[in-house]
Amino acid sequence: MPRLLELCFWKMFLFLYARVLRLFFQLKVSGSTHIPPDQPCVFVTNHGSHYDAFLCM
């Protein structure tokens, strides 16, 4: 049961984090259909600004 609560917490946190980032930074996500939902993946930025590391977390 604690693992389920932890998973729910992180999903809610990521959802809210994404909403706040979109609100303040007007982010555009492209190619999200290429991210496998059940496998690990690597996110890489093109260093367009100093906010890249912050936005990829």
Structural notes for this entry:
The protein has 57 residues and is mostly helical. It has one domain (2-56). The protein has helices at 2-25, 52-56. The longest helix is centred in the N-terminal third of the chain and has 24 residues, at 2-25. The protein is globular, with a radius of gyration of 13 Å.
Distance between the termini: 26 Å
Helix and strand content put the structural class at mainly alpha
Give the number of helices. Answer: 2
Structural shape: globular
Give the SSE string: HH
Which band does the percent of strand residues land in?
under 5%
Oligomer: single chain
Number of domains: 1
**Major sheet characteristics:** none
Kindly state the number of beta strands.
0
- Overall mean confidence score, pLDDT: 77
User: Which blocks of ≥5 consecutive residues have pLDDT under 50?
Assistant: none
Q: Which radius of gyration do the C-alpha atoms yield? A: 13 Å
Helix content: 40-55%
Give a quick precis of the structure.
The chain is an all-alpha fold and 57 residues long. The chain contains two helices and no strands.
Question: Which helices and strands occur, and which strands form pairs?
Answer:
Layout: H1 2-25, H2 52-56
Features:
mainly alpha, 2 helices, 51% helix
